[in-house]
Amino acid sequence: MAAIPLLPPLFARPWRLRAFAAVPTLLASVREWRIPSLLELFPPITLAVPKKKVSHSRKAMRQANKGLKDKQNIVSCPGCGEPKLAHQLCPNCYSFLKRMWKSAPIEQPEKM
């Protein structure tokens, strides 16, 4: 029987040493990896921008719906006849009642 020659240990081979020496630097670069932002993934030219300028006419048509609407719920007050909003107190009558309540003497309840 022929004797099996013993191989030198793995780290004793000089051509393997260079490969194992690079492993810590590879692992360090993996730990420093980060997710890029959107601007790094896509160039700014691909982000959403209008193709053409919006004309003054189209801009005015879009904003026409934002105008003030006329009130449809204005009625006359049954007490004084002044105009007021429906289902609201009349400001004229309320101020009159408020003045009356403030000028009236405060009644103290009798203690038993």
TrEMBL record:
GO annotation, biological process: translation
Cytoplasm listed as a keyword: no
InterPro entries, per the entry: Mitoribosomal_protein_bL32, Ribosomal_bL32, Ribosomal_zn-bd
Source organism superkingdom: Eukaryota
Any single GO CC term annotated in Swiss-Prot or TrEMBL for this entry: mitochondrial large ribosomal subunit
Keyword annotations of the record: Mitochondrion, Ribonucleoprotein, Ribosomal protein, Transit peptide
Localization in the cell: Mitochondrion
Main location: mitochondrion
GO MF entries: structural constituent of ribosome
Keyword Transcription regulation tagged: no
Family, as annotated: Belongs to the bacterial ribosomal protein bL32 family.
HAMAP family: Ribosomal_bL32
Protein name as it appears in the record: Large ribosomal subunit protein bL32m
Organism: Mycena indigotica
Lineage: Eukaryota, Fungi, Dikarya, Basidiomycota, Agaricomycotina
